[in-house]
Amino acid sequence: VSAPKSTYRITLLPGDGIGPEISAATVRALEAAGSKFDIAFDISEGLIGGAAIDATGSPWPDETLESCRGADSILLAAIGGPKWDANPRELRPESGLLAMRRDLGLFANLRPAKAVPQLLDASSLKREVIEGVDLMVVRELTGDVYFGEPKGTRREEGTTVAFNNMIYSEPEIERIARVAFDVARQRGKKVCSIDKANVLDVSQLWRDVVTRVRDDEATDIELSHMYVDNAAMQLVRWPKQFDTIVCGNLFGDILSDEASMLVGSLGMLPSASLGDPANPGVFEPIHGSAPDIAGQDIANPLAMILSAAMMCRYDLKHPALADALEAAVEKVLDSGLRTKDIIDPDDPDFSLVGCDEMGRAVA
Ligand code: ATP
Ligand code: MG
Does pTM top 0.95 for this prediction? Predict the structure, then answer.
């Protein structure tokens, strides 16, 4: 194991809407955490999404790609907004996001769902079900029914038929399985692989390959398998049974949204997208650019700050830095500070703060 670096190069992509506000709060918190460990961040800002379209005519300028390729890691806030919604597809902010994932080879999406003790009442689920939930969904991002060829529609016997193909190759399954085992090693050392192997051939391959990778490379990890319909039920029935969940693109799309809602507010949920371990990953909140509240200093920066913590853990491989950021977020919540989206208006013990003040408090 090489010694940790003392300076990390970060490309920061503030994007649109509340992006710049939550980015400023996050940089403040990240730099404060770094200074505790004598770590400096060399941060370059890049353009993406609507802001990039306005400045350069492209949602994913070459300059931004170059900056990302040279970075240790990438922090993204959020992109998009009504201003660009009527643009042709290649001039929409979302196209920038897809191009980024493609160019950086990001094939694994990580979404944690961790109950926030201070916000348990915000969940619509029972307290005893939610309390102590701490799971991670590892979703494959570049294969499956979204990309399988052939796809399309055809006329058949006087009617229209549409079709998509659920396709996975052994190498695609191997690499996502490795990510999942790696993630589990830094957590509870338990992986549950989700499939529909009782019905789908592609799922049988998925199950066989995940099992083989575990037996060959990850015997320290406990592996179980679950059918996706059962997993959807178990996630709301007793989510504490899960540590790390690994699944294909389609099942992961559904299960990661389901899992994230176990813990309540959108403003609290981070995510990571990873590719080849030699390349930088992208860390971003799961929420969008929230154009309805942009520029008002009321957005919650905690999802992006927790994304920066994931960056420290999974890309910079500095768990102490990640722990420090996460502990600071907990402490701030314990002290009663709340942005508008997570405040309980009936409880006088909480104080309402803006985005900037929340960032300062965490720092
Ligand atoms: P996208 O399509 O980019 O995912 P979306 O249309 O799903 O975006 P968001 O931008 O995530 O929507 O916003 C959904 C709602 O949640 C909005 O009312 C927004 O103001 C609110 N919201 C989102 N993020 C935050 C945040 N960090 N702090 C406070 N409120 C937020
Ligand atoms: Mg959305």
Answer: no
